[in-house]
Write a structure and sequence with these properties.
Elements lengths: L2 H13 L15 H23 L1 H12 L3 H28 L2 H21 L3 H29 L5 H25 L5 H21 L5 H6 L3 H10 L6 H13 L7 H4 L5 H16 L2 H14 L5 H26 L5 H26 L8 H19 L1 H9 L8 H53 L8 H7 L5 H5 L1
Helix pairs in contact: 1-20, 2-6, 2-7, 2-8, 3-7, 3-8, 4-5, 4-6, 4-19, 5-6, 5-8, 6-7, 6-19, 7-15, 7-18, 10-11, 13-18, 13-19, 14-15, 14-19, 15-17, 16-17, 16-18, 16-19, 17-18
The structure holds beta-D-glucopyranose.
The site of beta-D-glucopyranose has 13 residues, from helix 7, helix 14 and helix 19.
């Protein structure tokens, strides 16, 4: 799209109170349709979370069954994020070329195949292959599911729809912690992996009965399918006008987008915002805590494995689920920015407190020690703050700021960068702790919160209450972020 077209579209939107363009998706979806979109999003998120969480319980069994060392275990743990990184890049291409539904079906297929390979693996290298396959499913789903939710959701509740995806991730992680506890035992790890195949089958069934995105139909040159879908989504006489709104924004776009369009100067602002949030979400430490909370609690004085696992399951897993409801309640009322700002403050302060607890502990141990109590309380505050801010808001904003022309690919790039950052943080957390100590490591995460807070205040626009087309039109001028705020 020429810059001038962008600018004039942007200024015409700024002229009217609501932007003057009809939202493509009706304000209210028929109940069954809304439920079907949510079922797809929730199952995809739950599988993502389950694959993240399951490994903490499966590792011990794998270690005993194959008598392998630390390096093999690290590979089994972390290669799922490598698979996810590649899967998310491929997921963007599949979602743009073959549709959001086919991408989600591919993700379900990969989950099922990966789970079967892991559960039946005769040796460790085969488990690693299974982790890579399941990981690519995670990556494809991480792109396609929130994209699907953002495109099918009415503008007024779009934040809520995408936050349901984050809620599902947290339920998946918590569910995996519970399954791990229930199946703990010599060969329980096979069943732990196998369980995700059942969820993969449920996801495939949900996708098969769901509607394709009308925005994708219109983009694929299938206006009749797009109109039919809009009617099924509750559009009445205005289905043609809604389709026209989609087509206007598509006409303003390039005919054949390429990967380089994602990095084109005219989309620099949304690109930086998406990548910035993707990196910020990880460098502030969430997955160091999700993966290594058992050892953090051990270092903080929780002496028995049972006490550590319980602290992880409830203080991290359950609190993460419950606190995501705060985002669901407020993201469309208060907006994305207030949640991000409040969350980053809470995360930064709690990480600083954990750092001080380790700094002043001088090796004190015992579950009742000041170190144990402060660490537990501060990590709960950290998880609450993440769960209502950077967790859901990152995925929401990444899926609403990119123009339709490159949305699939741009979301894929941001998601892959998120996984890359997750891989680095989770892969190097223990080495960093060894090098600079527990206290400084948590202060480092806190420093990233402070930097992120300043950046969010000056550089991340408010997207609440704007249709995807209005957001797209707003990138025309250099002052776009202020316009949206
Ligand atoms: C992040 C994951 C993280 C999860 C924790 C997600 O938004 O992308 O990396 O494990 O939140 O709830």
């Amino acid at each position: 799209m020429a810059d001038t077209t962008q600018r004039s579209a942007a200024s015409s939107l700024r002229a009217g109170p609501s932007g003057g363009r009809l939202d493509p998706v009706p304000d209210r979806l028929p109940f069954a349709r809304g439920a079907s979109v949510l079922a797809v999003v929730v199952l995809a998120g739950a599988l993502f979370g389950y694959d993240q969480g399951v490994i903490s319980g499966a590792l011990l069994g794998i270690q005993k069954a194959f008598a392998v060392g630390a390096v093999a275990l690290e590979i089994v743990t972390s290669w799922v994020t490598l698979g996810a990184m590649f899967g998310s890049l491929a997921g963007g291409y599949v979602a743009d070329h073959f549709g959001r539904k086919r991408a989600l079906l591919a993700a379900a297929g990969l989950f099922i195949a990966g789970a079967a390979i892991e559960a039946l693996a005769p040796e460790v290298p085969v488990i690693v292959v299974g982790r890579l396959v399941a990981g690519s499913g995670v990556g494809v789903a991480a792109v396609a599911a929130p994209l699907y939710a953002a495109e099918l959701a009415p503008t007024a509740v779009r934040g809520r729809f995408v936050s349901c995806y984050q809620l599902a991730i947290t339920i998946g992680i918590f569910g995996a912690y519970l399954v791990d506890e229930a199946l703990a035992g010599p060969s329980g790890w096979r069943a732990m992996f196998g369980v995700s195949a059942i969820a993969g089958v449920l996801l495939a069934l949900a996708v098969l009965t769901a509607l394709e995105s009308p925005r994708w139909f219109a983009k694929a040159g299938r206006p009749d399918d797009a109109r039919r879908t809009l009617v099924a989504l509750g559009a009445g006489d205005d289905a043609d006008a809604r389709l026209a709104a989609i087509e206007v924004s598509l006409r303003e776009e390039h005919e054949t987008p390429s990967w380089s369009d994602v990095f084109a100067p005219r989309w620099r602002t949304p690109l930086i915002i998406g990548l910035g949030l993707a990196v910020l979400q990880q460098v502030t430490g969430i997955n160091a805590i999700i993966y290594y909370s058992d050892s953090i609690f051990a270092a903080a004085g929780f002496t028995t494995p049972a006490a550590q696992t319980q602290a992880t399951t409830w203080a991290i897993g359950a609190v993460n689920v419950l606190s995501t409801f705060i985002a669901i309640a407020f993201i469309d009322h208060l907006g994305r920015r207030p949640l991000l700002i409040a969350g980053l403050i809470g995360m930064g302060l709690s990480l600083t407190a954990v750092g001080f607890a380790f700094y002043h502990s001088g090796g004190a141990s015992g579950q009742g020690s000041a170190l144990g109590v402060v660490t537990l309380a501060a990590l709960v505050v950290f998880i609450i703050s993440f769960a209502f801010s950077l967790g859901p808001v990152t995925w929401t904003v990444i899926n609403e700021i990119y123009p339709g022309e490159v949305r699939g690919r741009a979301v894929a790039v941001a998601t892959a960068v998120n996984w890359g950052a997750a891989f680095l943080v989770s892969g190097f957390f223990l080495s960093v702790v060894n090098a600079i100590g527990q206290a400084s490591t948590f202060w480092l995460f806190a420093a990233f919160c402070a930097i992120g807070l300043v950046w969010v205040i000056v550089g991340v626009p408010e997207t609440r209450g704007r249709s995807l087309e209005e957001i797209e039109a707003s990138w025309g001028g250099a002052s776009a972020p202020q316009t949206l705020r």
